[in-house]
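Worked problem 6 (solution included).
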Amino acid sequence: MMDTKTLLEWSATYHTPNYGARAPICLVRGDGVRVWDSDGREYLDFGAGIAVTSLGHCHPRVTGAIQEAAATLLHVSNLYHSAPQIHLAKLLCEHSFAERVFFGNSGAEANEAAIKLARKYAKTRWSDDRYEIVATRDSFHGRTLAALTATGQEKYQHGFEPLVPGFKHVPYNDLKAMERAVDGRTAAILVECIQGEGGVNIPDDGYLPGLRTLCDATGALLILDEVQTGVGRTGRLWAYEHTGIAPDIMTLAKALANGVPIGAMLARNEIASVLTAGTHGSTFGGTPFVTSVALATLTAVLEEKIPDRAARMGRHLMDGLRDVGRRHPAVRDVRGRGLLIGVELTQAVSPLVDACREAGLLVLSAGEKVLRLTPPLVVGEAECDRALEIIDRVLPP
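Solution. The predicted structure is:
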C-alpha cells in the first residue's frame, strides 16, 4: 500500500479541485459500521457514504450478489430485457404506490427524469404553456443543470448561470407560500420529505398532506425526492408513509444498492404512460449488475425488517443526543426521523466534524451549523453509545 502522504499528494495533483474539503484520510476497508484508513486506523462510520451504505459495509448478501452478478452478466443496454431489472421494478412497485419504474444512475438523474416526465405529462394532459416546477428553498436535488436549478441553494448555482427556465422557489414547510406560487403554468411541485443537505429540516405533519390536496385541486403533480430518505432511512420503507399520502412521482438513489450507483424514478401508470418510445433513456441505467445488487439490498431491507430497526435505533440515538445537549450550551436542537438526524449548533459545525474524526467517528454536516448523523441502518446500541460518548467529549463545554 502506498503511504498516505503520497496518496494525498497525488490526489491534490491529479483530481479536479471541486472536492476541496475532503478529510485528510484515505479509507481502504470497511466492515459493518466500521471503516479503516490507509494507516490502519479504525473509525465508526456515522455518515455511511452520505446515507448510502444502509446495510453497512460488505454486508454478506450484498457482497454475494456483487460476486455472482459480476461473474454472470455486467451490461447489455436497454435494447434488451434483463431479468434482474424486471424483478427489481416489480419489487419496487409491489412495495410502494408506484406502477412503473425508470432506472438511471444517480439521484440527480432520477430527478431529471421526474422533471422531464412532469413537463411531458402537463403538456400532454393540459397545455404547452404548463411546464413550471415549484421547488423549495434550502432544498437539494442534484448537480445536473435542471436538478441544480431545482435546488434552492444559491451557493451550488453560482457560476453556472443561466439556469434552466421554468422553476420557482418558496420557503420549505410553508403551505400558504406554495398555494400562492402554484398557478395555471405549474406542472409539478418538487419537495424532499425531509430536507437533508439543507439542515435535516422536518416539515409539520400537515405540510405534505397539504401539498397533496393542493396538487389534487390544481392538477399539478406531486414529486417527492426520497433520494436520502428512502429505503428505510426514516423508520418506514419510504418517508411518505409517515404522512398518510402518496406522491405521483418518487425519486430514489443512494441506499437502493448499498453503494453501487443506481437511481430510480417511480410513477403512477397514467403519468408514466407519456414517456413513449424514444422520449427518455439511459445507457447504464438499470444494468443486470446493478439491479442484481439493488434487488439483494432491497430484499434484505424487507426481510430483515431494517426500517423497524432504524426507527428503534433512531429513538435511542436521539434520546442520547438530547441528553448530551442538556450538558452543552452549543447544542440548540436535536431533530430527525429514524436514522436521519440533525444536531443544530450555535456555532460552526466544521470544527466538530474534524474533532469527531480525530476521535474515531465519521459524521457529516448539513449546512454551516448542523451536525448530521446517517449511520448504517444495521447500527447497534453499543455503537450508538460509543458515538454519543465521542460527541459528548468533543463538544465545547
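Discussion: Residues 330 and 381 are 25 Å apart (CA to CA).
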